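Why does residue order matter? Because the sequence determines the fold. Keep that principle in mind as you read this record.
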Amino acid sequence: MSGEPPATPAPQRPPRQEREPAGTEVTEIAPGVLRTQLPVHLPGIGHVNCYLLTDERGVAVVDPGLPSPASFAALEQRLRSAGYAVEDVHTAVITHSHFDHFGGAERLRILAGAEILTHESFRPVWESTEVAEEAELPTADEESADEGRPPWFSLRRNPWGTEREPLTEMEWRTWQEIARDDPRWFATPRPTRTVTDTQVVRLARREWLCLHTPGHTEDHLCLFDPEYGLILSGDHVLPTITPHISGLTPHTDPLARFFDSLERMDGIEGVTTVLPAHGHPFDDLSGRAKAIRRHHEHRLDIIRNAAEELRSGTVPQYMQRLFSERSWGNMAESETFAHLEHLRVLGELAATRHDGQTVFSPA
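Structure:
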């Protein structure tokens, strides 16, 4: 027998709360603030938290789920469990312009006459203004192939020069199901009420401070209730995963904007409970924001080391250093590009064009 001690098993990562399937229960977080969940079937995401803010007018719904019949049926069931009907919804609050958050808003506007409240910069994710260069227009054949698809599927080539990967068969079947129900639900809702940073809105019989937190999206909105110390953090600060930072943005350095928004979380006094859009409520907003920042700083270090080794590399080459193979694809390329651009703006990397692709090398 060997006298060596047994090897210590590698520590296991805690389970990702955001991947858990949606539960059906409705729980009270604070007076007039209820939490429930709606089903989401996306990579790494199993639900979206939908918060019901009740008051003398009825109920405001924060992030009313995907634009699918199943998601809206779940929302109707959760409202009934809380003692409300769809017709009682007076406001749909959308934290940001991703379809798992805004999908049910247009139905609520049509069926209940609900206001749609967003930050003033809210806009569809794949508008032409959202990318660094104009998307290529599809041919006639491609237009017919795209019939029934949401508008953000029209982007054929990434700004850094790579072809976008097509939808998987499962994703395509999901969108077909929604389109068969009513293609109008693909449309990003047009807000009827917009707010600015530090503006105050009254919901659930109390005042909420609106906080513009660009990064995950340019239009991301958080709401802070100083009376009970609640903050609706959307996807800006999540409990066990880090939000995607896209390189498809008109801003030169989206990662820097995200860092600024994370730093702002450290200055909010009196937070007792963070209510994220995915995962469970938690209490340490400052600590979690700092941990997310460290995660991205680590990724920047990986890129710095890869740049010294590669000397000249495309976005996919850097992506393969940052992400495991199972994550390679459009989103991984986009986030890699955002990190590369951050280092370029800092003067650490230089970008050139070669064979139609952006190439990054040490400055």
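The radius of gyration is 21 Å.
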